[in-house]
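Technical annex, item 7. During the second reporting period the consortium partners agreed on a shared format for inverse folding records so that results from different sites could be compared directly. Each record opens with the tokenized structure and is followed by the designed sequence. A conforming record, contributed by the partner at site C, is shown below for reference.
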């Protein structure tokens, strides 16, 4: 499997750009993501520190402080590389089998500072993995 992380201004723009990855909802005219291979509303962020939070029951815990990147993100999984998904919205392409990052719009060093979630279950991605040349 090949996973694509795509970024759009919002969900409406994503649905307009990816109509073949949606299904007709129960209500006529309402489109829903085909979640058999699409994971919508993904967050991309940097952890900028931690803070101590009072749980209201006499205990405290540490919580990450996250600085979310702009945009609306979505994972789309395909059996093989799909050039139709490798356009302007494409942020990252990764192999689900190996965990290799096949393409990214950023650097390996920058990937090491990012958090991305949720991800598809069982994916071996190590953010900051080596960027590999695309296979022809």
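Designed sequence (site C submission):
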């Amino acid at each position: 499997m090949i996973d694509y992380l795509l970024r759009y201004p919002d969900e409406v723009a994503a649905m307009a750009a990816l109509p073949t990855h949606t299904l007709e909802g129960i209500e006529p005219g309402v489109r829903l993501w085909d979640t058999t291979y699409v994971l919508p509303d993904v967050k991309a962020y940097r952890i900028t520190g931690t803070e101590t939070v009072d749980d209201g029951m006499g205990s405290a815990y540490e919580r990450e402080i996250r600085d979310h990147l702009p945009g609306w993100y979505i994972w789309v999984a395909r059996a093989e590389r799909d050039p139709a998904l490798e356009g302007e919205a494409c942020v990252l392409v990764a192999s689900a089998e190996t965990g290799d990052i096949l393409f990214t719009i950023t650097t390996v060093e920058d990937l090491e500072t990012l958090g991305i979630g949720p991800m598809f279950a069982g994916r071996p991605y190590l953010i900051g993995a080596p960027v590999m040349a695309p296979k022809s």
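Confidence is low (pLDDT under 50) at residues 128-136. The two ends are 16 Å apart (CA to CA). All partners now use this format for quarterly exchanges.
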